Please model this.
Amino acid sequence: MSTAAAAVVDRVEQARPAQERLYSLDLFRGATIAAMIVVNNQSSDDAYWPLQHASWNGWTPTDLVFPFFLFIVGVSLVFSFRSRLDRGDSRRALLLHTVRRSAILFAIGLGLNGLAALQFGTWRIPGVLQRIAVVYCAAGLITLFASVRGRAAWIVGLLLGYWILMRYVPVPGYGVPGRDIPLLHYDGNLASYFDRKFMFGHLWEPTRDPEGILSTLPAIATALCGVLTGEWLRSERTAKQKLAGMFACGVVGVIAGELWGVWFPINKNLWTSSYVLFTAGCALICLATCYWVTDLKLHRGWWSKPFLIFGMNSIAAYVIAELIGGWLSWKGYTFLRSLAGMESAGLASLLHSLIVLGLCFVPVWWLHRRHVFLKV
Model:
């Protein structure tokens, strides 16, 4: 970019209303939702490795998807709150809105779980939307009543506190992690113990749940990292300063997560503190890239439109995907593989997930054309 062009961009950025919707944020959200639909509709046994979750410690590209969405929830929360405050809403009104929205999201998640298991004894209580609901509520309350320094302190406290709990608190029936049993033992960790103790069998797996009780604490820190990013984007700094800050913090987050992972391994299932830093760093780099391409360079067009459509109706897209994906499920994958005579099970799994993505896009596109954006 030339010096003159950079100056023009900086002037436009400074003149732009702080609450204006960011194209890059909707694009990033839409790409994340699309990726979530793809990875959620894979055959876990046959999918290509980047489309599978890490079995335990470590990570794959798939393990970035959910924390990216929680990070985006935090960024969006800042813009939403500021817009409502500018319209004259009180903090009490924002508080009630936050609690109400969280309750509705949690109820929708429970309902989707119920479609998979109609028997009350096996009805899973945790889930993706349920975690989003709890994290959104907690992050919203912290954002409303804590300063920027206070929010940063919450992040530090949640991450250090979770590490102390998982590392030093004895697990009944197993002992002290890192001394009596391996650190992050599959069943002998405190998070899994909490799930078994308080969920009474309403879990994804018999002994634990990837969206369980205790691991929600560091997930709140993921959203709060997004909140700090939203505050940064709403600041009076120039576009180049915002871009450089996001990239720099992203690199620091990735390195810090990898380093902490030596002592507290990166683990999506347990949402470890190192996982929070690593994925928040990756999210910052991805958002900064989207910001540079679409908000600074203004490279927008046919390639970005589908992601924008998904991003502006993300909850509707997820619910539709759960309904369609559940309807097709394994039968759709096996039918596709037999119909095409595919020798590659991984390719069949990928094509099945892309078909689900395409089927989901149609109703979301229809809603977008009619300017219907489902809010809760």
Summary: The two ends are 41 Å apart (CA to CA). The CA atoms of residues 114 and 120 lie 8 Å apart. Residues 1-19 have pLDDT under 50 and may be disordered. The chain has one domain: 20-369.
